[in-house]
Batch of 2 targets.
Target 1
Amino acid sequence: MNYLQYYPVDIVNGEGTRCTLFVSGCEHKCKGCYNQKSWSFCSGILFDKAMEDQIIKDLKDTRIRRQGLTLSGGDPLHPKNLNTILSLVKRVKFECPDKDIWVWTGYKLSELSEQQKQILPYIDVIIDGKFIQEQADPSLIWRGSANQVIYRLKDLK
Ligand code: SF4
């Protein structure tokens, strides 16, 4: 898996102060996509063990307390990204159990494959669905268009 950007301190992509990773690769091709550069799986740089270690280190950093980790893209739940993301969220929940994990995906929660659903026990919030330009609304928080839904998975479990 490649990633486009990593922000060790981020206050706009989810609740509280967070670490945020934007992965490369997305096949949803939404009209009006905010970042078409993210569509290519070859964009950005390789997500390696050193980057994973850095995220864990940042989440454990007590000087700036992070509420959790945000995974966005691109699409973290694209089948090509899934194994790496699954391994990352498992490690975060094991080593940083007090941190929450938010995931943005273009897939609908109700339409996730069995393989994609494997991530659900390890994450706290999922914002689902493609960006639909006709339903775009800048007043929405954490969503670009009104069709997208914020699911707090603990409430559903
Ligand atoms: S799901 Fe997100 S990254 Fe993918 S095309 Fe749609 S807006 Fe762009």
Note: The helical segments are 49-60, 79-95, 114-117, 153-156.
Target 2
Amino acid sequence: MRTPHPYSVPSYEFRMLLEAQRKRLPAAEVGADAIDEALRRIQQGHYGICIRCTREIDRGRLKAAPTTQTCRRCGGEAG
Ligand SMILES: [Zn+2]
């Protein structure tokens, strides 16, 4: 199926988290780009969707790494 499914993870929570992280980072700091990108993805409604397989990224993974764009499997991590 090509249709993006409605995003089921409450992105509000992650938006708050990312914005808080963003405020602590100077613009040039490593990671600031990734946070901006994640915030953009929230606005566009793709946040939490793996860019490779388009499945939802595990919430625990998102909490540990809110800027990740791949699910555990596509990120090449065990478990
Ligand atoms: Zn994936």
Note: Residues 11-64 form one domain.
